[in-house]
UniProtKB/TrEMBL annotation:
It holds the Pfam family VRR_NUC. Belongs to the FAN1 family. The lineage of its organism: Eukaryota, Viridiplantae, Streptophyta, Embryophyta, Tracheophyta. Its cofactor is Mg(2+); Mn(2+). GO terms for biological process: interstrand cross-link repair. This is Fanconi-associated nuclease. One of its GO terms (cellular component) is nucleus. Residues 56-85 form the UBZ4-type domain. It comes from Nicotiana sylvestris (Wood tobacco).
Amino acid sequence: MLKGRESLIRLVGRRRRFLRRRHSLLTSSAPQHQIGCKECKDEVSTGNGNVDEEEWVDCPVCGKKIRGEDRVVNSHLDKCLARGSKRKLSQCTLFQLNFCTRPKVTVSSIESNVTRIDVGPSTDDGNICDLASVTFSKNICDLASEMNSSDGPENDIQDESKSSVCNRVNRMENLDGLLKLDDERKLLSDAKTMQIFGLEGSPQHQITDDRIDNIADSPLSLSEKRMPKCVEPSEDDDNSEILLDTFVVGRRFGNDGELTVGAMIMLSRDPENVKDQNAIKVLTKDTDHNKELGYIPRELAQYLSPLIDKFHLRFEGHITSIPQHPHAVVPIQIYSSGIVSFGEKDSSSLQVFNSLRRNALSAAEFSQTHSPIPAKYQHNLLLLLKEVLNINGHLFTEGEKTLLEAFLSLSDDSQRLFARLYARKGPWFRMASISYAEICDYEEAVKGLSEAECVTLFESMDKLQNNDLKEVLNVLNVGELRDLISSLNKTHKKIAQNSDRGTRKQDYIARVLAAYQGGLCPNLTSMILGKTGRCIRISASAESVFWRAERLFFLNGEQDLSEFLLVDLGIVKYPAYNCIFTDQIFPDRSDLLSYEEAIEVAQIMDESLDENNNELVSRCVEISASNVSSFVEEDRSSHSGSMAAFLSCFSASWVYSKVILLGVSFLEHEQRFKEAINLLKLLLDKFKCDRRRGYWNLRLSVDLEHVGCLDESLEVAEKGLLDPWVRAGSRVALQRRVLRLGKPPRRWKTPSFSSSVKRKIVEVHVQGRPLNCKTGVKNVFYGEDGDRCGVEELALQYYAGEGGSWQGVHTESGIWLTIFGLLMWDVVFADVPNVFRTKFQTAPLDLETDSFYEVRRDLIEALLDKIEHGMAEELLIMSWESHVGTACRGVNWDKHSLSELRAAVTCIGGLCLASICRNLAQDYRSWSSGMPDLLLWRFRDDYRGEAKLVEVKGPRDRLSEQQRAWLLFLMDCGFSVEVCKVSHAPI
């Protein structure tokens, strides 16, 4: 793989279906800095056009015409009333983690340049409570009916003050849920809050608070993280039987089976559950075999689990009804089988029991009125959109916001269908083959998406281009394409004579396209439609907006909506940290558009390499070089100080530099060294403060040598050594080039670093019986036990035996990064502004920059002082027990056990371990790779140990410059290091 290809693939991430500027980027010499976005239609009609009276109704609050569907009416009325005096409820973000909640942005004065973002209250355990908004659509419908049936003209109804409407709503008896959640917010008002000081200036397209609250009244407000209000114990409580009406959740993960009304069930604790230690399973009560149906709601389980564990209550019950939906919740009734007895002296236990009992009753009652959301992926998508609009609303045009608001007001079926299609590859899908159990009415779902311009339908060829036809044909299988070709051949034999006779699917598609473009069959489109049936795809405008929202949410191309699922299933647990914003990543829309355009060029570059289209590859490199030459320095000056280091990766110039670097590797592979030299000089000229300068200087020196410019090659290497951004392996490589090229008569003076670079590294030779001796294939040997093994395992066997009775692991950089992550955990996730921007980060954005050490210098040095004084093992144990299983950059929980890490830390010693941690903290990017293959240790009788680091090389391997740099550094730190060379045993 070309150098930089893998990095570019990670940058691009999931390839976009539609690249709107592909043609303009590849045909024009000047960069395009604006994105044309089609304005979406207004959500409601003004009444001037032709409106179907059966499908459109008047809003009793604002007077606008809206679709007469219950879901649309309820949502629209919620929005209208939210603009009045109705109290607004806040909703926190995801998963009850200690992240930044939904910020409520308020500007204290016009003159102020600071925006304050208040992050909501947190609970005692550090998790943020998610107070969900309440949708009260039924009550709104009752209000609308009451208003329409009241006396007086319609104009009086429509002109009624909003405050009066809201007061009438608040008097309704069925708004207990709304008031209950409002009381919860008051109870938590004294909890810890974090003030985040916001951004200078006022964004051009800043979204208002009212507009955010309007969006919050969509299905987004039905958060799954609802908690009932705790009930204080009463003296009148008794320990009588507990009878609860609740339901079974999580059926999709349980055993399938037919349910019957009245079937007996029982509850069973599941304390080992990864997601919830209070989890309680629901089992069928069968004498032969108990089948797992699912779980009871989390809000109820937190009170029933201590009743089961501490008071040994047993719960049984029965199924009360069967839902129509296969994954819907199953209503059940449960009761405790027995009464707990308390003595006179056991009043404290009685109070605890009564408190748990009353809270369980309250939780059961609460869950009955707030059933969970069946489609979690829909809920996750809505959360993503709301979070992006809250923080980055100024980056969207009014048309894009209108499209998102239209999507948020769609029915559940429409939103779920869109989320399903967006996650699939596509782009076209047959309507006949789409089947999801949670979607009830496909026709209405498609109709709503089509009206919101979120999807495109294939029902005729009027709106399709040739490329669209090719994509539509891809939904047909080979047999259907063959039948289509046969039908064409019966009436148009020229198709068979003039077309490729290949039997692959793409060959058949090419023959059909040739017939269409040649006009040989006028009714071809109807024949294709007859084979495919109705087809649907995500529209270009919706794909563009949702891709932008997803990119702004995750800030990278490697993560997508599947990250929510990994967290929901307990597969991935992200660390707890605070998000503090003082600067925007994209201050205005033009910066974002330039960045997106650069991502498109990178995707085209990646696709062109897959297709071996060298002409298109060269064009992408030319575009990138032109853009870097024109505005890279202006881009870099948009941020100042340490911010520029880690936020520069979100600039267009940084993306173009990745394309150029890949282009350099491509040109070197093609032996077009002069063109590669020009690109490298451009990078070195425009990026004065970049950690990649070491590699650029090295490749420039090598390429100059390829073209015979030895003097210039030596000069580049010498200047590179004076560059403070040239470090680690690149620095060692340039030093060795200077020593090789700088011999008399070019240079007479020996450089001062000569003796350091030429230091001898101890070598150990091990012989093994080879299994294969092929060049370019990994070496395989027979181990001492006769099994096949690699050179590293063979070296471990040698050191465990005659090599000195060493214990050890083959880990390379893994164990060192794991130790660093565990020891420096609190430093890595410290409260530093702007380094945590999303809910799914495993490290701060500045980890691989100089600012990581500079900003946290005091914290790091204080921790390193403890490590030097022998506290490393204690810190390691505490960090392991506190964070085991939590995702963190570099930490591998599965590969290394705590006992191995403790042994390694003890034997390495405090001084050497502190030196390595300081080196990684100061320059994580340069030193996070190339560490020795083996870490060996052994203990003495007094529990003191020693460690050794070994780099293993096969018969045809040699040290890389990065590996050599690590070995020299470790020697300076006082480590015992060796190079173990494995060779073939003589026959």
